[in-house]
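Contributing: when you submit paired examples, paste them exactly as shown. First protein:
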Amino acid sequence: MPSVHDPINRPDPAEPAADPGGSESWQLYANCLGVDPDLFFPERGASTREAKQVCQGCVVREECLEYALANGEKFGIWGGLSERERRRIRRARALARAAQQSQTA
C-alpha cells in the first residue's frame, strides 16, 4: 500500500470508500478509540499537536485518512492531518489525475 505521505499515488477520493458495505471496523483499532473527540476538533487557532501525537504510529492511520478524504471531512484531525493538509492532498491528486488524463487523451 502506498504511503500516506505519497498523496499523488493514493486512490481517488471520489471513488467509493475501500469497504463498499460502509463498515468502519478499522476504527476499533485506532489509537484514538476512547480519547475525548474534542481533542481532534480544536477551536480555530488552538494547537493540533496533541491530537496529531495520538495519531503517530496508529496502525489504522492510512485508513482514517482515506476515510476522511473519501467522505469530504472538512473539520478536525483525521489520519494525523488537518483539513488544510488534507486539502493539499486532494489538490495534488486532482492535478495528478488531470495530468494522467491529458497524457492518455
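Second protein:
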Amino acid sequence: MEPYLRHMDPVYRAKAQLLNETIQDIGMGRYQWYLCVVAGFGWFADSVWPLLSGLILTPVLFEFDFKAPYLSLAANVGLLVGTIFWSFGCDIWGRKWLFNLTLLITGVFGLAAGGSPDFLTLASLLAVVGVGVGGNMPVDSAVFLDLVPGSHQYLLTVMAVWWSLGQLVASLNHMNDTTNALLSDRLAPYRKLNIYLLFCLGGLTLALWALRFFVFTLLESPRYLFGVGNDHGAVEVIQHLAKANGATTDLTMERLREAAKPYQTGTVVDDDLEVPQPQKRKLLSESSDLTIIGLASTLYNNFLPYLSCSPPDSTVVVPNSATAPSTSLIA
C-alpha cells in the first residue's frame, strides 16, 4: 500500500475505492469528453495571462514610465495568493462554484485592466487577474480527475495542448494588435496596444466562462461530497453522470454502507509515520525540479518579450511585432 494511503480514514478509503470502480464501470463517455474541453479553458487562461504581463511590458513602460519589475511583481503576487487560496478553497467550499468563479474573475478584471488610466490601477487589476488565474489549474485538475475513470486520467497530460494554444493565441493577437496600433496612430501607439490586447483577451476569457456557465452543467465532485459526509449527494452525482453518458450504475447508499461496514469499528491502525529515506530523496528531488521549472517559466514569460523588443546596441526599447513571431514559434 502507498504510504499516503496508510493514514487515510479507512471508511473514506473504502468508499473512494467503490467510487473509483463505479466510475470505471460507467466509462469515458460524452460528459467527460465535454469536461475535457471546458476544463481546458483553465489551462488556456493560465497560459495567456502570465504571458500577457510580458507582452505589454514594453508599451506600458513607454506609457506610464515606471520600474519594469513592478508589473511582473504585481501579477506574480496575485498568482501566489490565488494558488494558495483556491487550492484550500476547493476542499472547503467544493469544486462546482469555484470552477466557474476563477475564470469569471480572470475575464472581468482582465477586461477592466484595458481601461487603466495609470500604472497603479493596471498593476492592481492584473494582480486580481492573477488571483483568478492562480486557481484555474488546481481547481480544474481536481474536477477533471474526480470525474474521469482511472483508465483515462492520462488525459490530464494531454490537456497541456490548451496551454500551447493559449501561448499561440496571445502571441498572434499581440502581433496583430501591435501592427494595427502603430499604423493607426503613430503619435499614441502604446496606449492603443494595451487596450487592444487586454480587451481582446479579457473578452475571450469571458466568452470561455460563458460557455462553462451557461452551456455546460458541472457536477460536484463526489470525493468532496464523501469528505464532508454527504454520501447521498455523492450517489446522486454518480447517477447523473451515468445518465449523461447513457449508461447505468448500481451504486446505492446500501452498497456504500456495506463497503464501509468492516471498517466502522472505531479503531484506526496507524502504520509507521516515518517516511523512508529513499522516498525522502525522491520527494526532495521532485520539489527542486518543480522549483527550477517555476523560476524558468516566470523568466521566460516576462523577459523573452522584453528582450525581443530591445535593440542589442541600445537601452531604448522600441515596441514592434518581432516579439509575437518568437513566442508563436516556441508555442
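If you have annotations for the second protein, write them as plain sentences, like these:
The two ends are 40 Å apart (CA to CA).
The first helix runs from residue 3 to 6.
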